[in-house]
Design goal:
The chain is mainly beta and about 400 residues long. About 5% of the residues lie in helices and about 40% in strands.
Length: about 400
């Protein structure tokens, strides 16, 4: 996709590499990233990533030897609302240089596999010595990219002053020449193996090849401690925690997949979601699994993963429920049911929403009296009756 200045796109990938290509051998150009709060300022100097501070403390943004920037959206700190990607000319005033001398400039966004997501060719400049090339920003819990192309006079110092950084002599000192690193379409950068989601955090599943493949959502929980002795047979009632989901298809059809009512679903026919087991004790090593056929992602609008206590007291702390989302090519997503105060027996755990050709996964962990109350909160519109299994 070729972007125009001011054009915005949703980012459906979690791992990005941003490259600023140009035909300007006479200019010594440096890329940098400013991790900004809602105020438009950095929280501290550590939120300025450049050749002198090449890796953010969170591991979310890295300045590479080939003067590109790598970004892991799953690691962005909570206080960061926007990341400004910039380019400046080293010693522009002393060398009497500006961006009017640049030619063939293109900003390239690539995913984890080196596949190009979008390009942006900034407009020609005149006296500017610094450019905000683009901005990655949060919007309703998701990430978007804005092709900015805004020029500044005053170089790096002007950018730093605007973003709340005090420039020192050490900061502007040139680094030793780094070894050059090439970047091809087949080159990958490191991907995390597991990501533990925070409440409200969204992560997009990575599409590998033409489809997502099978997505497995696993619920594991622990059986509460058992009472021994004569009264144990009366007290050890245990707890039966059931994994289930609500689904809404693109054609408007909606329903539930759950053991209650024997609604186990189907992988090959609508809703393309199936429940493969019912662990009534918490002792099954594999727990319970919902499977989603990623070949039909274009037919599914959204899926709400939830669990409910079919039998036993609402003691969520003893259950220690953990949901894991597994998708080929993506890190495992861990959602812990880590809020224990509720006496309600139904918990909405995670929401999967269609974002083009993949799903975003958001941690919810919100408790309800029953499925009907949860349905109303998410505006699903189903009719509920009492059921048994």
């Amino acid at each position: 996709m070729e972007l125009r200045k001011g054009q915005k796109i949703a980012l459906n990938e979690n791992l990005l590499k941003i490259i600023f290509e140009r035909n300007s051998g006479a200019l010594d150009i440096d890329m940098a990233a400013f991790l900004l709060q809602s105020t438009g300022k950095v929280k501290g100097d550590e939120d300025f990533v450049f050749y002198g501070n090449p890796r953010h403390i969170s591991g979310s943004v890295t300045h590479c030897n080939d003067d590109s920037v790598e970004i892991d959206l799953t690691k962005i700190p909570r206080h960061v609302e926007k990341i400004s990607i910039t380019a400046t000319i080293y010693e522009a005033d002393e060398r009497k240089q500006n961006f009017s001398k640049i030619s063939g400039a293109v900003l390239r966004l690539k995913d984890f596999y080196g596949t190009e997501i979008a390009t942006f060719a900034p407009e020609r400049f005149t006296v500017e010595t610094a450019i905000v090339l683009g901005e990655i920003y949060r919007y309703k819990g998701a990430w978007k990219f804005n092709a900015t192309g805004a020029g500044y006079k005053g170089g790096l110092a002007a950018l730093c002053n605007d973003f709340g950084i005090e420039v020192s002599d050490e900061m502007t000192a040139p680094p030793p020449p780094p070894p050059q690193k090439t970047y091809s379409n087949n080159q990958k950068f490191e991907q995390p193996k597991k990501i533990e989601l925070r409440k409200g955090q969204r992560v997009n599943l990575i599409k590998r090849g033409s489809t997502l493949g099978e997505i497995v959502i696993n619920l594991n929980w622990k059986r509460p401690p058992q009472n021994s002795g004569f009264f144990g047979q009366f007290l050890n009632r245990g707890i039966d925690l059931d994994l289930a989901c609500l689904y809404e298809l693109k054609d408007g059809r909606a329903g539930a997949v759950q053991a209650l009512g024997n609604l186990f679903g189907s992988l090959t026919n609508a809703p393309y979601i199936a429940l493969d087991g019912d662990d009534r004790t918490g002792e099954s090593e594999g727990g319970e699994n919902l499977r989603i056929n990623g070949k039909f992602v274009n037919k599914i609008q959204r899926i709400l993963i939830f669990t409910f206590i079919y039998e036993g007291a609402a003691n969520w702390e003893e259950a220690q429920g953990v949901v894991t989302v597994k998708c080929p090519g993506s890190p495992e997503l861990i959602v812990r049911m880590d809020e224990y105060g509720s006496e309600n027996k139904t918990c909405a755990i995670a929401l999967l929403e269609n974002v083009g050709e993949t799903f975003s996964v958001e941690k919810i962990v919100r408790f309800y009296h029953d499925s009907k109350e949860m349905d109303e909160d998410f505006d699903w519109g189903l009719r509920w009756t009492v059921g048994r299994k």
